[in-house]
Amino acid sequence: MNYKDNDLTMTEDATPVSFKQKPWFFWFIIVAALGFIGFGVFAVSTIFKYHRLDQYGYTTNPTSRGVVIADVDPGGPAAGKLQKGDSILAINGDARFSRITQLSWQSSFLKGSSHSLKIERQGIEQDVSISNEQYAASPAVLNLRLKRTIAYFPRYLACVIVALLIGLFKPGDKLARLGAFAFLMIAHQAITFTIIPIMGMFSQAENLAAYFFILIQGAIWFGPIAYHSSYRFQDGIPKGRFWTILQWLLYFSGAVMFLNRFVITTAAQSISAIQFRSDYYGAERIFGQINNWYWIVCLVSISAVLVRNNHVVRQPDQRRRVRMVLYGSMIPVLPQTAIAVIARISAAAGYESFANSAVIETLRLASAMAMILVPISWGYAILNRQVYDIQVVIRRSVQYLLARNALRLFLALPIIAVLYVVVTKSDRSLRELLIYLLYDKPAYLVLIIAAGIGLIFRNRIQEWIDRRFFREAYQQDKILRELSEEVRKLDSMSGMARLVSQKVEEALHPEHLYMFYLEEDKRDLSLGYSTGGTGRELRIPEEYELLRVMEHQRRSLDFPLPARAKLPQQELDWLASMGTSLIVPMNGSDHRLTGLLLLGPKKSEAPYSGSDRQLLDSLADQIAIVYENVRLKERVARDRRIQHEVLSRVEQRKINLLKECPKCDRCYDSSEKICPDDQTELQLSLPVERTVEGRYKLNKLIGRGGMGAVYEASDLRLNRGVAVKILGSSFFGNQEAQRRFQREAQASARLNHPNVVRVYDYGALSTEGAYLVMELLKGVTLGERLRTVIYLEPDAAADLFDQILSAMEAAHEAGIIHRDLKPDNIFILEDQESSEAATANEKAKPVVKILDFGIAKITQIETSSETTSHSITTPGTVLGTFGYMSPEQLTGGDVDQRSDIFSLGVIVIKTLTGRRPFSGKTFQELITTMMSRPFHLPGSSVEMKCLDAVLQKCLAVEKDKRFDSVAEMRKELIPAIRFCLGSTGGSSGHLESDLAITKRYDTSEDPGN
Question: Which of 396, 424, 502, 595: CA 20 to 30 A from 302?
């Protein structure tokens, strides 16, 4: 990993680091985490083993006059024998025990079924005998142990997890390592505190295991390490002499305290432990007092240095991280420090009973539970690439707290507790139960009332909290919510864009904003509005994978995108160049993508919050609806205008408009209302006459496409069947569409070839439309045939392509480049017509016709060597069918006859194998496949190698490496295909096993066919 601007922001390396190159801390943290987890398992197992048991029934405290009884369990063996405050003079006659604290270390020396204590009570010495046998712990002891486990065990887990994550993701960051060490020390302290109450009952082996772990003394080292980590949290924080001296003083104090605890802990395991502890009692007591204040000094120092850092840091991102750590640490640390100070002062003033009271213990456990916020806040600040401001986090937390389901849960828990009390104390009267709940369990009723009030008034409470404490965020939300309502009322895209830009700028303060809309009749997105100063020529092509990702996502995404998005590097670079920080999709009513909002980073450098994204998603959906409505109104208005103009001419001339039967596709005069064949009501389809230009009578619809419709018609002058192609009504008045119709007529007229569809006539309609009259063909396209049979045998394919190449050879000689060759533009006549077209001496073969020269490029061949190209498209425009276009067509480059050769090569492979040679569902995938994965026919036979070599000269990425002409291609390709035939005329065994692909191929990826 690397770190941007020397902060703790995690970014991806350009190249992954192998495990052998990982820093030493990476491996250290794994081993340490495994060790801590292992001891955690040990702690849990011992807790389950001993949590219901207790021993001796009393605890001790060191005082200036020796060891005294601190507490007596009313249900234990010491009840009625010992009293709080009794001074211990000897145990089993050994006076040294009067100066040894920590009963847990005495267990290994108290043998037998009981031990005797010599005590002094009010100046009177007494001898009592206490059982050594373990007994069932009292409910009070069980409750205290449960509270300690709940308070400390989650903190232990959180600290180990955060330390492990820091070590795994930032092993090379020295400052992050300090944080990981600090969390390991907190984890050590927490897990040790959970087992202290039961350590007196450990076996010798369990004591030994605990001994080695306790030697770490995390409670001591946590202070200086946590201070050091807080002080040097980030490289941008300046040092201070006072704070540096304080750092080393804490380390020195910690080392002294550690040495003391190490000596005591180690001595406790030796044979001379009793004598050593007795002799060391005075020093141990002094160190105990120092330790109490050492802990407080550490907490105060950590709090102070965090406050100091918050004041000296200026860089916004660093400031957010420091504030996150400051608040995440201060919220639990300050109460814990205050409680510790109160307890120490009370004890020093002689109020030890209050210092050790249940109230102080409960507050201490509550503050200990809150300490889990420390690893969570630190881990968030260290590991996250972007950090929200603490106010955003707090506000979001309050919103979750006031969420309906959360309040229901808070309401249900105390109700369940009350029901439990009612069931377990069913022998009591209702009055007794109420008194018990009011005086002994008032917290249950308070929680029920609080949760109930919160559930009823949660919206008002949340709004009041926002207005009172989060005014800026409240205003932002208000602006964006009002904007969503205002957008619904707009009917102008330009007005909406200006309003959205103004309000989003006012609410979120992005550096720039781009609004992209879906272009009319295209899938590209064009720039509709920008605050970044970019020209209006900016477009997002429909081939961009970004559009598919965002359409599927349906919600906003931060940029850089997550790894699962898998966008091509070109698109990632483009988004980065736009200064993108947030991408918001506009989803229409059909959940299709209609646009994108690209927002730059906030001027405050704060990341976009979840609330920001939620409101922007809602706003984008409203924009999409307005966009659809505006486009629909524009389209309806345009159609009405065209229809009005057309119908006005129709009414003036009393034209016999064309009507169609939507069921059988037959054509009728405008006077007819019902189809006589199927009794279906007739409909007006195109605003054209039933008899076009008084000559071509339309009889039946053959097919309808994006540009228009094709009808079977009768040529009334020549008394023959023809096909009439009429421009779609949406293109009436569209000069470009009419020019393409004209271009198709001109291209076909220049050709007089049996394998090119003949065009008889072309003309413009008085209604600003256009028509094209062609020979009437009956049969199927090659695309339809392949969708049925998947592939063709080599002999049939050779016959078809011999005619196809002959036609294209003639077209190229006439200076015509088709540019849209595909199976659906190759027509195979029915057998009857094929037989009629065949000579009497040859076997009847299917006749092929090349269709659709609508986007052909016509090159005027002069008598000189110069060639002039005529094209109705602008340079850089991509024309053709996806999957069959050459690389230069895909990239908007110059095309010539070699571009058609590439398309023909693709069709050959599709015909012989049932699939295209280059896979890809997007522009990027397809062009990448072409460039990096050349296609080769399967098999190693001579026939396959021969055919493959020919096809390589068709499919070469570089035009210069392809055949120079279709004539050359035909000369080599047809014999190569026929070479795959055996002597009997059938497919050879090599071809059958190597090439002929059956219907097991999935053709779903081939939209173009």
Answer: 396
Look up 960 and say whether it is catalytic. Answer: no
Which long-range contacts does 56-62 make (Cβ < 8 Å, 24+ apart)?
A: 56/103, 56/130, 56/132, 56/200, 57/130, 57/135, 58/82, 58/103, 58/130, 59/103, 60/88, 60/101, 60/102, 60/103, 61/101, 61/352, 62/101, 62/281, 62/284, 62/285, 62/288
Q: Which CATH class is domain 655-775?
A: alpha beta
What percentage of the chain reaches a pLDDT higher than 90?
Answer: 14
H or E segment and range at residue 800: helix 794-813
Q: pTM of the entire structure?
A: 0.48
Better pLDDT: 875 or 409 = 409
**What residue segments make up the domains of the chain, in order of their start?**
67-98+100-110+139-387, 404-468, 472-634, 655-775, 779-994
Q: Does 205 score more than 80 pLDDT? A: yes
Return d(Cα 48, Cα 901) in angstroms, integer. 79
- DSSP class per residue in 514-553: EEEEEPTTSS-EEEEEESS---TT-EE-TT-HHHHHHHHH
Average pLDDT in the chain? 76
Q: Which residue in 7, 54, 799, 820 is the catalytic one?
A: 820
271 to each of 108, 113, 538, 600, 872, how far by Cα in Å?
Answer: 11, 21, 85, 71, 103
CATH number attached to the domain at 779-994: 1.10.510.10
The CATH fold of domain 472-634: Beta-Lactamase (3.30.450)
Domain 67-98+100-110+139-387 coded CATH 1.20.1070: yes
Tens of pLDDT, residues 130-140: 988 888 888 77
CA atoms of 541 and 173, how far apart (whole Å): 42
Percent of the chain predicted with pLDDT > 70: 72
Distances (CA, A) of 537 to 152, 527, 534, 597: 61, 7, 8, 16
